[in-house]
Every structure is written in C-alpha cells, then in structure tokens.
Amino acid sequence: MRFIIAATALLLSAVAASASGGLSCEIDDAVLKLDVQSGVTRGMGSPVFNFQATADVLDKKAPEHLRKTSFTDEHLPQYWSDAYSLNLLLYRETVGDLPHGYVEITIKTQPNDEEEGSYAGDYELTVWDVGPEGSTQEPLRVSHAGKVTCFVE
Questions:
Q1: How many structural domains does the chain have?
Q2: What distance in Å separates the CA atoms of residue 115 and residue 149, rounded to the nearest whole number?
Q3: What is the distance, to the nearest Å, from the Cα of residue 143 to the centroid of all Cα atoms in its chain?
Q4: Beta bridge partners of 152
Q5: Contacts of 117 (CB under 8 A, 6+ apart)
Q6: 5 part of a folded domain
Q7: Disulfide-capable partner of 62 in 8, 120, 127, 136 (CB 3.0 to 4.6 Å)?
Q8: Is residue 106 part of a domain?
Q9: Does residue 72 form part of some domain?
Q10: Cα angle 147-28-72, degrees, rounded to a multiple of 5
Q11: pTM of the model
C-alpha cells in the first residue's frame, strides 16, 4: 500500500512539473530597467504564479519614492498569453505616509519568429504623483515608451 501511495505521489509531482514553465521579460534602456520573473502553467489561460518584478525608473523627473518599485502577483491586474501575444499590466500604488502616486507599466508583445518562446514588443511607463499633502502644484506625470523582450518556456 505504501508503494502505491509513493508511486502515485511521484507520478503526480512529475505531471505538475511538466505542466508549468517560466516567463521572463527584460527592459534595459536609458529610462527603465525592468526584470520580470514568474512561473506560468500550461492551458486554461496559462495563469502565472510566484510573479516577481523590479523596476528602476532612471528619469530624474520621477519622484524619488517612485523610482524603485517591486511587483508581486497582486500588482499584475491584467495578463494575457497565447500563441499570438504576451501582454502584461503591472500597477502599484504608494502605501503608508507617502503622497498618493503609482507606477504603471504596460507590456505588449508578439512572438519573435526567429526564436521559439521569444516575444518582442513595446512598453509604456507611467509614473504619477500627486505631491505632498496640501500642495497646490499640479500632479506630476512622467511617461515613456520603449522596447521590451520576453521569453516563455
């Protein structure tokens, strides 16, 4: 009986391992450095798990407290992956005593026919900051666009 249970557990773990892969995206330009790493399952929309991303906004016009941002599963409100496109929306607001603001990164890609699992496309970055409480200045908006590469295995 123990042998049957152990064999079943081993078989199920092998099936689960073969049913998942990885997803990564990279941006490395003069305005934004972004590294995305995530697990992704096969089938039924290919949901992600253990999503992790770090963004370094290099534009000095962006407020200091919004230049370095980390993202997890809860900061990925939209995601789409199929044979025709890989799209991600990363969004994170400030928390705590910081002025209200957010960092939003939209990634839209299509398969790169030269390499299986490779995607290439564009990103749009928006950094928005309302400024200190009681400030009479207009909210600050910093926007940039550029190229991104992603890989799904």
A1: 1
A2: 12
A3: 17
A4: 23
A5: 151, 152, 153
A6: no
A7: 127
A8: yes
A9: yes
A10: 90
A11: 0.83
